[in-house]
Write a structure and sequence with these properties.
Strand order of the largest sheet: 1-2
Helix content: 55-70%
Order of helices and strands: EEHHHHHHHH
Structural class: mainly alpha
Largest sheet: 2 strands, antiparallel
Distance between the termini: 92 Å
Radius of gyration: 44 Å
Length: 221
Amino acid sequence: MEHPCHRCGATVEDGIPFCKQCGAPQIRVAVESSAPSEIAPNPSLDNAETASVSPPARPEMSGVAAPIQWAHALPAAIWAGVLEALFALLVPAIGTLIGGFVCVAIYRRRLFGGWVSPRVGARLGLTSGAIGFGVFAIIASAGVIFFHTGADLRDVMMKALEQSASHYPAAQAESLLQFMKSQQGWALFVAIVTIINLMAFILLSTLGGLIGGVVLGRKSR
């Protein structure tokens, strides 16, 4: 069989690789051209990549209180504790309550206005109350050692007990006074007063911190 040359049109027999007239090759391979396929975007992968590079939401902006940052909390608790110990010499209850509130305010300021929840505020107040009682105990001990205030305090307490004992039967009042004048009785009295002071510092300061968390937390949010 014959076919015309695709270049010059001369008749060329099948199987002849080149045209005798123009020399054009007669064996042609048809190559099917195809455009490169586009890869369809995967929304799930895009979302995953976006989520991986997007910064995490700040706890105070998402409504979840951040954990206590003790690097900022301890200095605030120390300052507030010293303030509570000094106030305890003048206005014990009110001073301790204000100290817990001040502790939350200082901590919030060190966080540049971050949100402090009531729970965190209560924990900060408890910490400042414990520190405040420790400072107060050191001041009281120094007064007893260097200024001998223990003897004066004991005399005042004994006079108060004698006045109170006058309202009770003579036998019971006399036995109570004799016990309180002994070393064991006075040691028990000091221990009870110490425990009461410790509980007062912790409870009032915790309450002050809780109030600080509520008030300053609302202001932040």
